[in-house]
Write a structure and sequence with these properties.
Blueprint (H helix, E strand, L loop, with lengths): L4 E3 L2 E8 L2 E8 L3 E6 L10 H9 L2 E6 L16 H14 L5 E6 L2 H12 L4 E7 L19 H13 L1 H12 L6 H13 L2 H7 L21 E7 L16 E4 L1
Parallel strand pairs: 4-5, 4-6, 6-7, 7-8
Antiparallel strand pairs: 1-2, 2-3, 3-5, 8-9
Helix pairs in contact: 2-3, 4-5, 5-6
Length: about 250
């Protein structure tokens, strides 16, 4: 049975448990697309993609991750297993099937973990935009191209000291050349809405492998996959898909 929305006094929320309710929006009709935001960002990051896609005949669903945006902050559950279960709750509550999951950055791990944990019965395809956590970021014996753990620890310490300054120091590298200061501030404000517990505990999750799809029976997972790779020094467009300004599509 599908989970009910929180109650009539709080439309636009899906109850996960007694302490957790996720804010969502559901635009348009047609083939369903579900958008998952990057770390510390929320559903608003997809507004400029969802609006034209909804107008073009797609159903576009997006939600704020727990501890992000307008969703509640239970102070726990900032791991890929729980976040994958939250995604399943959203798909269940909105009765979604044959859906394409679109994830940016950190959310690529949520999508992969969802598929390895819940299977692909609801999923027609996936789009990973600038995936930041697949296969995983930490340097280990079996992932020699990863980053040293000390870099993560230094970044977390800097973030805990002053998250606004952490954002400011990285803005130039994150955005495409020519991005207006207003757009940068809009994104920073969105990031600052994420509660400290969610950003502090979910950030290290990028260090750990999200259990890759090698465990799926190939015959039961006829998924299509498109990956959009970050290109910070150039802009290009994929026909039919409004991309983030610093991305391009690659199959």
């Amino acid at each position: 049975m599908a989970r009910d929305t929180l109650n009539a006094r709080q439309p636009g929320y899906i109850r996960i448990d007694d302490d957790t309710a996720l804010h969502f929006s559901d635009w348009g009709d047609g083939a369903p697309l579900v958008f998952l935001s990057g770390w510390t960002l929320d559903a608003d990051m997809w507004n400029y993609q969802r609006a034209p896609l909804a107008a073009a005949g797609f159903r576009c669903v997006a939600y704020d991750r727990r501890g992000h945006g307008r969703s509640s902050d239970p102070g726990r559950g900032y791991d890929y297993d729980t976040l994958a279960d939250d995604l399943e709750a959203v798909l269940d509550a909105r009765s979604l099937a044959r859906v394409t999951l679109v994830g940016h950055s950190f959310a690529s791990g949520e999508i992969v973990r969802y598929l390895s944990r819940h299977g692909s019965r609801r999923v027609a395809g996936i789009v990973l935009v600038s995936p930041a956590s697949t296969p995983y970021l930490l340097k280990t014996a079996d992932n020699p191209a990863g980053l040293d753990a000390s870099l993560f620890e230094a970044s977390i310490a800097e973030m805990c000291a002053s998250f606004p300054d952490w954002i400011e120091r990285r803005a130039e590298a994150y955005f495409s050349p020519g991005t207006s200061r207003t757009a940068i501030q809009w994104t920073a404000d969105m990031m600052l809405r994420a509660r400290r517990s969610s950003r502090q505990y979910s950030y290290p999750a990028c260090r750990w492998p999200p259990i890759f799809a090698a465990n799926w029976p190939r015959s039961t997972c006829p998924l299509s996959c498109c990956t959009a790779i970050a290109m910070p020094r150039r802009r290009s467009r994929s026909p039919g898909l409004p991309l983030l300004p610093h991305s391009r599509a690659q199959r």
